[in-house]
Amino acid sequence: MAVKQLSILARNRKGSLRKIIDIIAASGADLRSICIADTEDFGILRVISDKPDVAVEALLDAGYTARVRKVVAIAVEDRPGALAEALDILDDAGINLEYMYSVINGEKDKAYMVLRVDDNARTEAIFREAGIQVLQEEDI
Amino acid sequence: MERYYQPEIETMPVEQIRAVQSEKLVKQVKHAYEHVAYYRSKMDEAGVSPEDIRGTEDLYKLPFLSKEDLRIAYPTGMLAVPMSECVRIQSTSGTTGRRVIAFYTQEDIKLWEECCARALTAAGATKEDVVQVSYGYGLFTGGAGLNGGSHLIGSLTLPMSSGNTDRQIQFMMDLGSTVLCCTPSYAAYIGETLKEQGYKPEDIPLKAGIFGAEPWTEEMRQSIEETLGIKAYDIYGLTEISGPGVSFECSEQGGMHINEDHFLAEIINPITGEVLPEGEKGELVFTCLDKAAFPLLRYRTRDICQLFRTKCSCGRTFIRMKKPMGRSDDMMIIRGVNVFPSQIEAVLLKEGYSANYQIVVDRVNNTDTFDVFVEFLPEHFEDTVRDIANKERKLQEAIRNMVGISPKVHLSEPKTITRSEGKAVRVIDRRKLHD
């Protein structure tokens, strides 16, 4: 269950993002979403891709610090307040959200969101119970 | 079974060592007084004549020499024989901005190389061994000293010099090197590269390493010993006194035996110059007892350490010195607190980080800034900023507990901190640029 996300540690330096993107492109992996968290010294790049395992190998070979971990992905209705409702569900269950970002998708009336939480299985179960669609690898 | 290169000297009774030292000292003082005008005027100024020195008990009467004296006497002001009697020079790296040129006669080279042969033998090297010398060759004493010592033993010597790590590894594997001589930071780097190339400790032919020329910690020793599957021995020396082999570790790996038949050691209070009793911590001072060309007397090393003459299980009777706590040149005073890079290194290794780090000290608005850059290992990477911030905070706390002041810790990607194949640059003190 859940979907794979690729995380890469990148130095805050001119051109470093470009190099990473080049390596991923050369590995043949396609990007679905990209999100950057940055601090004074470095950034963490989070990528949803169709071939995360191929991309991570290429990055490790090039000397990058990278890893694949599983995150929860959901589809919420594309209307004001829908995301807030989903987050309320997490809140009520006492699940702590580390970060979140959106992923592009082909469906017109749905927004795809990726969430990083401590317990993926429990989070997915809670969303399903509340009638929110939980996405799989092949959905995105 | 402990082996010695010169057993009759290395296990000499202590009274006999003292007698040899006294006899040599009297001659050496006379030699320096007669042939080194610079030292003669220092002795005259201090009101000491060669006749006042009748043995080691009179050593304290002699004036000290410091790096500053060597700078003033540069290039040949300390030379005590005609240049035509010299066969070689070696020189310091000049990292502290004052390059020193040391001169050697044929006999000086011989005694230095014998000291290195003693160190190699203590580390287990024999004629059957293959000794890979990966210290820099050239002006630096590391390569030349161990190369010469290895020749005396009759070991096959690989004069690799430092750098070109792939070639180091190829020769090591193809020729089956059993003893590696280099700086500890380079040994760690070679070990890391071997690991990356998939070699396990049992695949590596090395059995021992002799590492020196820069400060290193017990933790670093353990990590090198594990990665390379060897016993790692410390060696100490300085160009001004001869080079590596002034003192060396034996099988006990508990302090370095000083080659006392050639070098007389004292510990002094670095501020008052007063000689301290055995066992006390202070600045290490050396007197060369029989080097002819460059006979430094009471040379202040700036190394802070301790001497002890307890019985050693190896059977050697030479006094031992502890690993220097750091050079007083390395010591930083940050916000009024004394900080040694070796303390930072000890914390990093204890917390599971690599010993590759850099300390940057600067002054902003009249306050010292203290930044420590640390490489973090790929296996520690979690993908949240919070996790990295937590790790930084934990390290910051651990360093504060060790040194008393709190640095700003910056974790960075592996391999981003500049690595050197010779001496590692651990401290960048930008305050000097502003003063």
Written description of the protein model:
Chain A folds into 2 domains: 3-69, VC0802-like, CATH 3.30.2130.10; 71-135, VC0802-like (2-Layer Sandwich), CATH 3.30.2130. Chain A has 4 helices and 7 strands. Chain A has helices at 16-27, 52-61, 82-92, 120-129; strands at 3-11, 31-38, 42-49, 66-77, 97-103, 110-117, 133-134. In chain A, strands 1, 2, 3, 4, 5, 6 and 7 form a 7-stranded antiparallel sheet that branches. In chain A, helix 1 crosses helix 2. The two termini of chain A are 13 Å apart. Chain B is an alpha/beta fold and 435 residues long. Chain B has 2 domains: 1-325, Rossmann fold; 332-434, GMP Synthetase, Chain A, domain 3 (2-Layer Sandwich), CATH 3.30.300.30. In chain B, 32% of the residues lie in helices and 23% in strands. Chain B contains 12 helices and 20 strands. Chain B has helices at 7-10, 14-35, 37-46, 67-72, 106-122, 141-153, 165-175, 184-196, 218-228, 341-350, 385-403, 431-434; strands at residues 86-91, 101-105, 130-133, 156-159, 179-182, 208-212, 231-237, 244-249, 256-258, 263-268, 282-288, 299-305, 307-308, 320-321, 332-334, 337-339, 357-364, 367-375, 408-412, 427-429. In chain B, strands 4-3-5-6-7-8-9-14-13 form a 9-stranded mixed sheet, sandwiched between helices. In chain B, strands 19-18-17-20 form a 4-stranded mixed sheet. Chain B has a 3-stranded antiparallel sheet with strand order 10-11-12. In chain B, a hairpin with a 2-residue loop joins strand 15 (332-334) and strand 16 (337-339). In chain B, helix 2 (14-35) crosses helix 3, helix 8 packs parallel to helix 9 and helix 10 (341-350) packs across helix 11. Chain B is globular. In chain B, 47% of the residues are buried. The chains are: A alpha+beta (140), B alpha/beta (435).
